[in-house]
Amino acid sequence: MLQDKYIVAGAEFAALQALPMPVIAFSTGPTYKVLAYSQAFLPYSLIDQPGLTGSDFFNSYAGAWQHWRALKWEGEGARTELKEEVVLENFKGEHHQYLGTLTPVMGEEGLVSYYLCSFQRVHRPPEGDPKPIETGLGATLQLLKHPARCEHGYCEIDMEDRSVRWSEGVRAICGVTADYRVELDYFLSFCAGDRERFKVLQVVSRTIANVEEEFELNIPIRTVNSNIRWVRVRGRMIYRAGVVVQICAEVHDVTSTVTSDQVIWESKNSLQSMLNSIKGIVWEADPATLQTYFMSEHVFDLLGYHTTDYTSDPSFWLSVMHPQDRDKILQSIKHRISQEPNFTLDYRVIAADGTLVWIKDIVTVVKAGGRMVALRGVMIDVSDSKRLEELNELEKEVLGENVTGNKSLAEMITSYMKGLECIYPSMHCSFHFIQNNRLTDGIAISLPEEYLNLIQNLTIGPCVGSCGTAAYLKRKVVVEDIASDPLWSDYKEYALRYGLMACWSNPILNTVGEVKAVFGIYYKERKGPGEGELEVIDRCSEIFKIITENRTKTKLLEESDFLMTQVQEMAHFGSWQWDVSEDVIIWSDELYRIYGIEKSSFEANLESYKKLLHPEDRERVMEQITYVMHWKRDGMYEERIVRPDGSIRFLRSWCRVQLNEQGQADRLFGACLDITETKATHKRLEESETRLRNLVDAQTNYVIRIDLDGLYSYCNKKYLEDFGWIFGDDDDMIGQDPLITVLPEYQPLILDTVKSCIETPDKVLQVELKKVSKNSIPRATFWHFKCLSGAEGEPMEIQCIGLDITAHKAAEDSLRISNERYEFVNKATNDAIYDRDIVRDHIQWGEGFSRLFGYEVDVHSFPLSLWASLIHSQDQERVMEDLHNTLSDSSQNSWCGDYRFYRLDGTVAHIQEKGYILRDALGKAIRVVGVLRDVTERMEYIAAIEEQNARLRGISFFQSHVVRAPLSRMMGIINLFKNYDTSVEEQRQLMDHLMTSAQELDDIVHRISDKSQASC
């Protein structure tokens, strides 16, 4: 930033900017920043125009400007004007020789205020030419002394063959040699440009069209060396039969004459333009008498006086100066003109209309032959700058009061508006707050109170005067004539009644764009704002915005502090700060309560703090604080303190370091949260978690958790026992990939299940998979997957609870095999297997039931009553009674029954049933599983056997009585033969009796045989 002494709203350098030569102003050391420059300097600048002001003077220029570093300046107090030839390079790469002049401009205190560096072009003769080529006014004077010095020649143009013949003089003017040949078309190319060629053709064509013989014109031409020369051409047309056949022309080089005239004309106009363009009053006065003998016309524009007022009256300039400034300025001039070549004066002038105008007078002492010959200067109106300075001071005062907070918001606004009206006397300020879209709480210094009451509580809108409209539109509204402006059509009588003719208003918006107030400026004349006044309005509005927002934020801060105090008390949260160099610690009130210490009886410093730390924590905490101070980083730690009553409190503490300008720890800021209750709760939770973890570890189920990266975050003891061996360390599976424990064919299923869990948090998904085991037999497991979510419903981790169902699967396989066998047996046997559900009153029959009895079996409904109805009526009561008694006897586990059963075709089957009874814990029969065996064929076979046995018994009876007689006789005869001696006769007779008995027995046997066959 440039120093304030150089910022005068551009008014001081207005004259400099309009100068036709390269000029640049820059500040004193050590910064040497560019303050202003002329437009003629821009072609030589290395920096674009927007960034040139404020840049480094020595790094802003092209060419040989770096040589200026070698200038032997005498420091900021230098009073000597320095000159040196330098080479400047423009943006085209062209180099020009200049004479640079460095002039210190003195301030009122006798010190250098800033430097002016100006450049005058230096023209040097070409090599070999001993005479310098003079340009500008000097060249013009030389031409005036020798008007006949100009080259001339003649040329002829043949219009038929378009050839050109020219004399040596014309060749010299065009810079060509004697052997140079050219045709008409190319000859015209010597014209300086297309416009000049067109002018030649136009003059010639007009001459021919008017059948005139002579013509004359002055045109610039471009020589073969690309130099521009001016020629005067007097031509004559040669006609033949009315057709031009030849043009003869006399050519004069009038470059010097044209240049001289142009220089004189341009010099006059440049001086006049410079004087007119300078936004100041240029003057010249006698250094001895201080009488003004020249004053530019701008004096009337700025002060309302005529030039003759100054030149005719030697004391006029002093008479219009403010009385308080006259003596001081007069003494300053007399003292400084003899010692300083340049200086500035600031004073007030009473203008013709009575207003005060602040003038900055830049004075130069002109010397010749070592004596003062004139005083020259430029008076610049710096009233706006001075007002801005006063406005700056007012703003500093108001903002300072705003910081202290000793005044209310209304007092602050009133003080600021009072200062504004002192700086701008014709201004009448107003300020209204906006509440519920209405103008409220109006504040004004010089406006009638009755007027404020009239506009109080007006609803803002698109046509509610200047203030109401500005607040509604949220933009600046300028009304130059209240009487005629449509925005005031409904309210102008309010303003006109009190002589208010113009009103400019600007809304005060907060940071979020809400209208909080509106600032209004009234005038008692029809008035429109200038650019500077608009900037003042915006500037004042910003100050009002700062004041109002600051007070609003201060109020919020006070409320926040109050709430913070309440929160600290409720949360047991205290704050502190430690001045390291002074070893002074400041505690909040809540921190004293946490430590159980009276504020009035405790001096907080490092040593007293260390004494309050638990002995076991003291060294660790101090190491933490040392670490924070050494590495300049934030710290967080836990500590225990011992209260004066001996109780121990747990604190969680935070600290942050503040560094001084040397980068060393200057202050520590921190906060402490009493977490004693939290610690106790945490301890209880840890104990509860330990119990829960032990309970989980004691389970035979698997319990694991997987993070969102698919890695273990927890696993219970059972899981570690069965799968920890896979990772080589049974005690640490955290962070490992669980897919390793799953057979490859099940891994895609795991990935899909995890993805579905994350997409649907808190939903339980079931999955059955096989995992690897030590004995190489896959371990069958069944899992519940559930994604646990956070407070916002976001997925956190996946909890998995699993069962080892290897034995269950083996049982299922056995049952499946058993069922298969049962089905095969059921299909292969003629028995009817059944499962009688007593509770549901339903009998589930095997396929044998249909094969044996012909009934279609309804798997959903076959009650006991239907079975009972199919039992033979002679057996039904017996069977049902026997079944009921057996089921009622809790000691009986089986039941057997024989009965007859009706088939579907009406035939009767003999049934033999055997069932096994299943009972509940109370011994009540709930189920009977058994079999019905069809024994009809066997029963019929038994009946046939019994009938046969009856017949056999009849035969046996017959045998036992009929056979016995002949058999007994035979046995007796044999006994006689064996035991007694008999005669031959007797033996013959006995043999006859024996034969007869044998025949009788044989006959009986034949009859028995026939009878047996008949019975079969």
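The above is record 1. Record 2 follows with the same two-line structure.
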Amino acid sequence: MSVHRNRNRPFAALLLSLTLAACGSESADALLAKARQSLDAGDAKAAIIHLKSAIQADDGNAEARFQLGRLQLEAGDFASAEKELKRARQAGYAADKVNPLLARAMLGQGEFQRVLDELPQPETGSAAEVPLLVVRATAQLGAGAQGEARQSIERALAIAPQDVEVLLAQARLALSEKNPEEAMRHVDQALQNAPRDRDAWLFKADLLRVTGKPADAAKAYQAALEIDPGHAGARLALASLAIAENRLDDARRNIDTVLKDARNSLQARHLLALIEFRENKLEAARDRLAGILKSAPGFMPAVLLAGTVEFALGNLQTAEAHLNQVIKAAPHNVQALRLLAATQLRLNRADDAARTLAAIPETAEDASYHLIAGEVALARKEFDKAAGHFETATRLSPDSAALRTELGIARLAQGDARAMDDLQAAAAMEGGGGRADTVIILNQLKAEKFDAALASIAALEKKQGADPLVWNYRGAAYLGKKDRAKARESYAQALKLDPKFFPAAANLAQLDLIDKQPDAARQRFEGILKADPGHLNAMLALADLALRNKDEKSHVAWLEKAIKAHPQALEPRVVLARRQLARGDTAQALATARDAANAHPDHPVALETLAAAQLATGDTTNAQGTYRKLVERSPSPAVPLTRLAAVQASTQQFAEARKSLQDALRAQPDLLEAQMLLGRLDLQANRYDDALKLARQVQQQKPKSSAGLLLEGDTAMAQKQFDAALAAYERAHALEPSGALLLRQHQALVRLGRAEEGDKRVTAWLASHPQDAETRLALASLLLNRKQYKTAAEHYLVVNQNHPGSLVVLNNLAWALHEARDPRALSYAEQAFKLSPDNPSVMDTLGWILVQQGQTVRGLKLLQQALSKKPDAAEIQWHLAAAWAKSGDRARAKSELERLLGSGQAFPQEAEARTLLKQLQGATP
């Protein structure tokens, strides 16, 4: 059998080659003729095959390329059409014929600006230019340039006032001006002039559809299909209507018909993704949209749907990026604006959401607008406003459980007695889900109506069956009743139903910690990891437990495991970077933060963390670059602009800092952080009137805030008006009592010669606020500078006891104890050195204490190392010189002192240094 095959193979190959040669022998003109015959027979697919063969036979055949591009355009394959039409023009086909079709291909991809940039502006006023004027007008409308579109249409009207395309362009302009009646008059005139004009029927169908007449729209689309049975746009419009009515199988049949002739049709692929979204096949929809956007990144329907899908998947940053792209192209797209506001709300950026909604003209008849506007107002604690929106939405959709629930929540926040009636009504509605029940339960728990909550929980359980969330609520109710045994049983039942249910494990772990059983708490989260080895929240919880137990190694290990299991997760990298910064491991923190920013290059938290790490390493240049990137990526640039200004000010770029702050305040006029920093710049530049004006503005904008009075006090201090400064600080403290404001009072009292009174005020505050470590540290520093070493040490000891492991605290504590002649100084200096053995300030403290306690050899070594790291530090030089003198090496001591005193640097021990140098000079033989 194999011999038989081998004998016939050459003959078969010869037959195949002869057949191919016969096919290939047809000329391009013959194949073009076949394409025309196929078109006459209504077979566009066969025509496309013949045209492609004609191009294969004659690559430079302009007619074949033009006709192929035209058919691809009709089929909705806009990207392929654009390529062929451009090649036709390059091959010599008349530009006035190609350009209008080429413009339509670009319009189909949403590339409005490219139409205007790449295609010529008609100049002669001839009839041949009318089609190009019309498509330019369409592009100008798409780009939001209505005035320019009107000019293009008027030019076309002057040439051909009864032309169907011109009348349809007038209709588009009327529709853009929200005048559908006028638009329909122009369309009807076009159909009167040309009753079988396919495009006029399509426009009429689109117009009927957007004015809420889907049945009439479907008839108009069918009329267009009777004229042109192969028209992809009409068939896809019918598919879109079917999707809106949830007739997904009908929609899919129409889409499949289109894809048989145009497998790359953007609209068809987009509608398939929309069907997948409707079927909750979110990952499939996302993948299909990614393919569309790879070939046509400016196709806005797909970008908008991609934003919707990412929102549904919970990928909020990605959703926001897509939606911002849509709004940049179409600033008044209501659907995109609403969804962007909802995205920002879920990102806990209610102020940004409010600004986004402000771009939507408020309409009393749009329930969805009032729903999201109410949720934004609720998040901003504007309860009256929220209730108003929800009341309007509920009136428009009285059977909506979701709206009734939101209204109940808003009224609940207002203390309105009708709130519980709304929530009970929502809970009773068919299809109401569990949100209303949940709000009722949470409100009852908050009001400590635990028995009522248990009854509501039982009602929810009847609706939803065995649900770990229900048992978690039950545990909270029993915990409120002080029945910890039943609370534990309830949480345990939740975990039994779902061993991965993190909230119940977290609640049980919290009870374990209260009972001083940290091992049991740890086992709760380890149990979740047994059920789900990659559970991110469980790993983060174990990292947090390790930190509570001062187990730094385990804390870092769990964070690193979380990063390995979830390479794209942001939180573990950010937590690790911040911990590394807190420990002073700035190089490691920078590496971790850079990884986070690489994984999430547009995420504000990642960029903020990277900038903080760059600042900690002294890299102010790259920190500024990171903040600039954050400004560019952020829809609300005010805060990152303020951060950028702070870095610029720290590097003496005062003019640049001022400009950044002015830009920030233009974006958000009441941003307090920017106002206060601008006030500091005014004071630094002696612009006292500007600073005081700003202080008064802040006081007016925020009458319950102490910030404006603080700036007023600082302005008075800068002008040496100490009584006025003290009065402003006292008024500020009365508004918002704080240790920081008492420290400001302390400064003013010192300048007024009343330092002891200042000490008493701050000490009294610390007596009633013993955990205020920041104020205690500031007071300790003041006392240290005033050489009240014993009292300073007492405060440092308290801080160290409450917050152990701080390098600054340990180093300053060691110094204060040493100056107070307390032998514990060496122990704390050693602890600081263990934390940071390469820190020159720490080495100086430990080295000097060792020298003073007679351990001169080790002390000298440390002081030499400290000076090598910080060669211009006058105090370290003084300590080293004194140590050389104490060791008996007078020559080195004398040399070091001469270098120090010759540098012209001022330092506290300068008088002692000069005395020692005289002694050494006098003793020199």
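Residues 17 and 632 are 61 Å apart (CA to CA).
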